[in-house]
Amino acid sequence: MLDERKTAILSAVVQEYIATALPVGSTHIAAAPSVRVSPATVRNEMAVLEQEGYLVQPHTSAGRIPTDKGYRFFVDHLASPGVDQNTSAQVGAFFSSAHGRLEEMLHRTTDLLAHLTNYAAVVVGPKAEAITVRSVQLVALSSTAATVVAVLGNGAVESESIEISPLLTDDQIATASRHLDASCSGSALSLRLELNPTGDAEVDEVCDRALASLTLGSSSEHVYMGGTSTMVAAFDALEIVRDVLRTLEQQFIVVSLVSDIVERGMSVAIGGEHGVQPLSACSVVVAPVVVEGEHRGSVGVLGPTRMNYPQALATVEVVSERLGRRMGESEAGVGG
Asked: Which residues contact 19 (CB under 8 A, 6 or more apart)?
């Protein structure tokens, strides 16, 4: 455990490096309001912090920069962050005017987060299988293809394409659509619904195929990304930028990364802590989206380890809270 003076010096180094991206010297830190000791004393303390793994000295400079361990200590000893009035007002205005399809709102939420933090933003939406079905419709696209569309209680729309027999008549498709709607409405797809026979084998077959396709599609999580272009300016090394952008294109990795951090009960994963090697130069700040006590998704930002943690934590927290509240209102049919 660091004593009070070392803690103040480390905190000042982290904040200065976050602000300037330049190695930090002892003279500058000695003048910080929270430190106020001689440059020689700061120099000695910074040398100890380096020996203990909290700081590192780039070979090109006399100044020092934080290590992942240094950032971790800083984050763990942060006072509970709060958002500024401007951010709070922007978030409030956004969700007050957020209507329409859930997918559109989640996509726009990533744009909001990216705009507020200047980092890449990610929103993992709820699995459709957990949400009550509002209505189902089967629509023929051609003589051999149809789309089954489910509107969910939270405003999301799930659609899957299926093959159909060219022998099916329009009346049979209409019958199948009504049967699916009557059987699924008011239930969640996770219940693995079983359809009662209609008395028409061809209708039953297309209904079973449509429900199976919907159920399979609804078990996957939907991920929305925004602001990934900010990563280009976040790093000096082109190779790091390339690795980060390539990894963020792989949705499965992004979903696994965010879910793993949330499941571990963490709000911040710094550098190598998250275990995704191509993103080892990045930190991730996440918060769960909770609706009526249930975990329905996650929101987060991803940026360099030289991240403004107080701002990122506060912004992600307020956005996750307001998103959860808005999703709850949509499911309850309020203002949707």
From this structure: none
Fold type of domain 4-76: Arc Repressor Mutant, subunit A (1.10.10)
Lowest average pLDDT, out of 45-54, 56-65, 238-247, goes to 56-65
The residue type found at 313 is: L
- Tens-place pLDDT, residues 200-229: 999 999 999 999 998 887 777 788 999 998
d(CA 282, CA 68): 10
CATH architecture of 129-218: 2-Layer Sandwich (3.30)
**pLDDT at residue 235, rounded to an integer:** 86
Query: Which tokens belong to 55?
Result: 């700081």
- Conformational region of residue 335, where left means phi above 0, alpha means psi within -120 to 50, and beta covers everything else: left
- What CATH topology corresponds to 85-126+221-331? Beta-Lactamase (3.30.450)
**Phi and psi angles of residue 235, each rounded to the nearest 5 degrees, phi first:** -130, 145
What pTM was estimated for this model as a whole? 0.81
Phi-psi region of 275 (alpha: psi -120 to 50; beta: other; left: phi over 0): left
Amino acid at 113: L
> In the predicted model, what is the mean pLDDT of the chain?
89
Kind of pairing, strands 120-124 and 223-226?
antiparallel
